[in-house]
Specification:
The protein is an alpha+beta fold. The chain has one domain. 28% of the residues lie in helices and 33% in strands. The chain is elongated and about 105 Å long.
């Protein structure tokens, strides 16, 4: 081989090696981004499940701010329990806080990878209002009367209010409407007997 042929072969080899390294780096970056998106989605689903479970056990669901949702319940001794989930925009995460008797929040479980979180409280009649965040097309023609029930001094009000929660993580946004377990439904069951009982 001549010197020119050797130099051409070396140049081709360097070009192929550079292209292979660039492709490997691109694939590694894409894989890393895909993994981050999958982890963020998993965190959002886990948070959504936790919120649904907590609403099913709480007497009241409320929204202390646009970026937080709260839950309230009492035990048999009438001791109150309050906990919230608050969004931290700087850390892209949602943290669960439990409140003691002193009212001081104690941080608990954190859900990382949440890029946006919003909670909007409204009355039950918002489910049939197309302009509401809680609107549900299935209930577009329904008529529901808002009910507010005082749970005690310093406690959020119970009743049939709802809180619409929007969670964004990765490239996915989910929305869910939550109500407390003690929310009255106002469904009426009419039973007619034939013949009438005597």
């Amino acid at each position: 081989m001549t010197l020119i042929e050797t130099l051409v072969a070396c140049a081709i080899g360097v070009a192929i090696l550079g292209a292979a390294l660039s492709l490997f780096q691109h694939l590694a970056t894409t894989e890393s981004k895909s993994q981050s998106v999958l982890l963020a989605r998993a965190q959002a689903e886990r948070l959504e499940d936790r919120l649904g479970d907590d609403a099913a056990n709480a007497w009241a669901v409320f929204s202390p701010s646009r970026s937080a949702i709260g839950f309230y319940m009492q035990d048999a001794s009438r001791r109150a329990y309050v906990w919230t989930y608050a969004f931290d925009e700087r850390r892209d995460s949602v943290t669960r806080y439990a409140y003691g008797r002193s009212g001081v929040p104690h941080a608990g479980e954190t859900f990382p990878g949440i890029t946006a979180f919003a909670a909007t409280a409204s009355g039950i009649d918002a489910l049939g209002d197309p302009g509401s965040a809680a609107y549900d097309p299935l209930l577009a023609n329904s008529q529901a009367t808002p009910v507010i029930y005082p749970l005690g001094p310093g406690a959020p009000s119970g009743g049939n209010g709802v809180v619409n929660v929007r969670i964004s993580a990765g490239n996915v946004t989910t929305a869910e409407t939550l109500a407390g377990s003690a929310s009255p439904t106002h469904f009426t069951i009419v039973v007619s007997y034939t013949p009438k009982p005597t």
